[in-house]
Design a protein that fits this description.
With 91 residues, the protein is mainly beta. The chain has 1 helix and 5 strands. The longest helix is centred in the middle third of the chain and has 7 residues. The chain is globular and about 50 Å long.
Length: 91
């Protein structure tokens, strides 16, 4: 995908690294994994604040954002997320 392309990815949150940005707001780097790959999803200030209660390891999420390349690696700048619920099938 090209830099700046909007896309949606889904997966399980493997880990979260929270920091305080230069502007004084909290932000997070989230490792999101599916069956094939992993991607770092970046949550800046206001987006992080809006969704921080969902950002827990082992949660399944769908994330819409913009692709950004940093040092040759693709990451996703989060704009919106939704927690995905896994329901057990009744036998």
């Amino acid at each position: 995908l090209l830099d700046g392309t909007t896309t949606v990815v889904g997966g399980v949150i493997e880990n979260i690294r929270k920091i305080i940005a230069k502007n004084g707001k909290e932000m997070a780097f989230v490792c999101l994994a599916d069956f094939n790959d992993k991607i770092e999803v970046v949550f800046f200030g206001d987006v992080f604040e809006k969704y921080k209660d969902i950002l827990e390891p082992e949660n399944c999420i769908a994330c819409r954002g913009r692709i950004s390349y940093r040092q040759g690696e693709a990451n996703l700048i989060a704009e919106q997320i939704k927690k995905l619920e896994i329901k057990q099938k009744d036998n």
